[in-house]
Amino acid sequence: MVDVAELQRYSLFGGLQHDEIDLVRPYLELATWQPGEYVLKEGETNGRLHFVLDGLVRVTKRNRTLVDLGEGDTFGEVELLDVMPAVASIVALKPTKLAMISNKSLHSLYKSNPSLFAMLVMNLARDLARRLRRMDELMCTEAEREGSGNLE
Q1: Which of 4, 27, 115, 140 has the fewest CB within 10 Å, making it most exposed?
Q2: CA dist 128 to 1, 4, 134, Å?
Q3: Do residues 21 and 13 touch, judged by C-beta distance below 8 A?
Q4: In terms of Cα–Cα distance, which of 2, 120, 103 is closest to 52?
């Protein structure tokens, strides 16, 4: 089982007390991947949020590298909340250990502890809002650079 101290570094658990994080631990799954193994392939349905506990993964779309993620990073926020297929592939670059929470586990947590569920969802929404803001800034910068002023 993942140590509470390890989980505290992830923004999903921001503002939660030690005992509250401890209540989430049974809902987490642990798994390891070896270099070259796919955690998730573009187009697959996964329904999990992943926490990189150790190792390194690469996020690709149409065989183009988007970003490498390591210890302390997360991925799969959209796949946790949305039943649509994954928009990118994730492959392990080094031996990688992940903790995961599925949308089914999150729903079970909702039934057993609605207030804790609400805190997690608020933290998740905050993370997604930050990413959306960064994307908006990138789009504005790109539009300004191209001189069009259009954000299409």
Answers
A1: 115
A2: 27, 23, 10
A3: yes
A4: 2
pLDDT for res 149 = 57
Q: What is the DSSP letter of 100?
A: E
Please name the residue that has the structure tokens 């690469």.
Answer: 58
Contact by Cβ (8 Å): 100, 93: no
Tokens encoding 128: 């997604």
Query: How many secondary structure helices (H) and strands (E) does the chain include?
Result: 5, 8
Predicted pLDDT of residue 83: 78
Ordered structural domains, the chain, with CATH: 4-146 (2.60.120.10)
Chain mean pLDDT for the chain:
92
85-141: pLDDT as tens digits: 999 999 999 999 999 999 999 999 999 999 999 999 999 999 989 888 988 888 888
